[in-house]
Amino acid sequence: MARTKIFALKRPYPRQSWNKQAVYNLFRYRAPQATRGTFYQQKFRAKQETRRFHGEYLTERKWNSMFRHTLRGVVRMNPAQMAKGDGSDVVSGRGSGVDLLPRRLQGLEGYEGLDSTEKRNPPIPFVQMTFAPLERRLDTAVYRALFASSVRQARMMCLHGKVMVNGVKMPHAGYMLNPGDMFSIDPLTVMRAIGGRERAPFKQLSTQAKSDLQKAIEEAQSKTKSSTYLKASNKKVLAGNADAEVDTETFTAAGVKSTSSETTEGEASGENATAAAAEGEGSTAGGKKKFHLPSDWRTYLPKHPRWKIYDEWKPKRFMNLFAFVPRYLEVNHHICHAVYLRHPVARSGGAEVPNPFGNDIMQLAYNWYLRRR
Amino acid sequence: MPPRLRPSSLPSTSNVIPQSFSSSPLLPFLLPSYHIYTQIPTPFSSRNFSTSKPAYRRIRFEKTPGTRNGFVNWMRKFAPRFNVPSPVDNIPVYLTQEPVNLPLLKGDSLPSVKKREAGVSRKQAKRNRVNWELAKEKATRSPFPGNPSFKVHPVISTEFREQIYLRMKADRSVRRISAELNCELERVAAVIRLKEIENKWIEQKRPLCTEMQKRVHAMMPVTEYTPFPLHESITDLRIHSATNNQLFLAVPESMPFTRQDAGEALGLLPADVRMPHSELIQVEKMKLAGVEVEEMVRIETEREAREAEEAKAKKERREKRLGAAKVVETERFRFRLKPANAAAVGFRYGVPAEDRKRGVNKIPTRVV
């Protein structure tokens, strides 16, 4: 059965999350000794350790069906070098090129100028690509594009229908992205997912304020002449008038004013058009009912963006430890869109799959999944 | 087996750096070791030999001392150093673990600890041996300390994207922009796509998350735009799976074996053709031959025009092919009716269709 306490401190496992306990567990995580036990035990242990990090919410059967023993890699070509010759110098001599330093001369004085090929090109860490098929999954790509603070959260976004692929809602977290696919999420969802704690007035609205807001909206939408205690501009907003909604001046005023919004409930806040809309002087004098709205009541309206978060966004705690975008993605955080350029590849000196495990463990895990194949 | 250190040489609390420097990427290296796999010796032990258990006695998960396995203490003392929402000078701060093998200086410049100068403390002499430049480079590029082979690659800055888009507006081809700015072809195309959407949003007066973009970029390595940026390699040749197997081929010793020959032996196109930006080879050849710059520009412009023509012709052919079918638009489907040969239908009958089976979740494989 799948483990429910995924960030447990007593038996810590590394997880793909920015959760504070996950960070603590990752900080004190040490890879197990790979040399102890039989080969089978080593492989099993390596598979356990790596699978706890990579797609731990997937069953082993599901992952087994995704695993591919072929690993993608690229070689960097040098056009200047290729223009000079037709490539025959690489296999000249005894078949391995003339510029390779013979072993008897390696490390001798006076021969440092000649470099062996191994030194020029560090090996391609192919085993780091073992879990590359997971990077194609939509939920993982959303996490890698920094649109969610954990893979599980990204998965939840997908399942809730927040993620679009090429402009079409894609409610399957397991959708395998194709090269060139563009995925996007509503910016507000992203900003809340990877943002720090929001201010209190954003989070909760008192019951009284909620009902008052509801009444005010109904009042404005009913088009009866009884709603005299609302200002005309506010009435337009509440009635869902599009022209009133893009009235940016009013919104910036609301954003500025709402820093002290804790105390504005039930208090008149002066000439500000947005604050406490119903509390004009005329309203109380006429004996009409009084609305107790917070000053940023506009941000609670349906279909209305919460403007403040756009200007005051703060990163979630520990985000800097995970702030990187792999090369196979191109992300635009302005609009929260990203493009999956190509499948991740390994190249000389580094692989593109983000992975906290060393080559020896990955080699063992890869071998585990190779069996029966 | 962990190093059997004497308690006196272990880092003590007096070594801890003040919190005001907390955004230096090197700082976590200097923190005392604090993880479950190391025995934390009692500071009051008067024994000068190791008190840690031998490897076979140690269990895998040791309880870290402190409330909630040391988590509360860690959050109070160490977490503030790792949580750096706005790093100084945009130098990224990634996770580092203790104990860390700091890279030492190479060769003759490595100072000795024993023969240190008078007035230099032992601790300072040890620190002088460390290659701090390299350590900094490592710390700012590897977010996973356990895996040095994973390096963070910088992203391109907002200005860089703007430049790519401006060049597209100036009617330059994606291939040319890619070669000019050292960005992969796919990346250039994606940047232009994203920029188009961004402009549409601005037109629609939809708000952009400028603050988030700014702060996220401040936390990661970014390639700034320069007239000749070096962002990434654009000539990465994909390793074809046919080249993974050994191939034994008898070749005459006196004849050169070229890339062309290798491609033929493997049944592939030669690397000169398969490589992205293969036209750069021709450019380099012209450079070697000492062709005038004007001539090179002329040849390149001709080639671009030819390629554009070819692409256009290909697109037209494709549209013609697709347009051949009769299209019936319904609410859900777009039927493209084509004349079919009914005689070939029978081959489907033997295959069981699973699409109506319970529990089979049909995830689309592509979204157009």
Give the SSE layout.
The complex is a heterodimer of chains A (373) and B (368).
Chain A: H1 20-27, H2 39-53, H3 60-66, E1 74-76, H4 79-84, H5 117-120, H6 132-135, H7 138-144, H8 151-159, E2 163-165, E3 168-169, E4 181-185, H9 187-194, H10 200-203, H11 207-222, H12 232-238, H13 242-245, H14 248-257, H15 281-285, H16 307-311, E5 329-332, E6 337-340, E7 346-347, E8 350-351, H17 359-370
Antiparallel strand pairs in A: 2-3, 2-4, 4-6, 5-6, 7-8
Helix pairs in contact in A: 2-17, 7-8
Chain B: H1 27-30, H2 71-77, H3 79-82, H4 122-128, H5 132-141, E1 155-156, H6 158-169, H7 174-181, H8 185-203, H9 210-217, E2 222-223, E3 236-238, H10 259-266, H11 271-274, H12 279-289, H13 293-323, E4 326-329, E5 334-337
Parallel strand pairs in B: 1-2
Antiparallel strand pairs in B: 4-5
Helix pairs in contact in B: 6-8, 7-8
Keywords:
heterodimer; A: 373 residues; alpha+beta; Structural Genomics Hypothetical 15.5 Kd Protein In mrcA-pckA Intergenic Region, Chain A; 3 domains; 5-stranded antiparallel sheet; two-stranded antiparallel sheet; 35% helix; B: 368 residues; mainly alpha; two-stranded parallel sheet; two-stranded antiparallel ribbon; disordered N terminus; coiled coil (chain B); structural constituent of ribosome (chain B); Ribosomal_mS45 (chain B); Mitochondrial 37S ribosomal protein nam9 (chain A); rRNA binding (chain A)
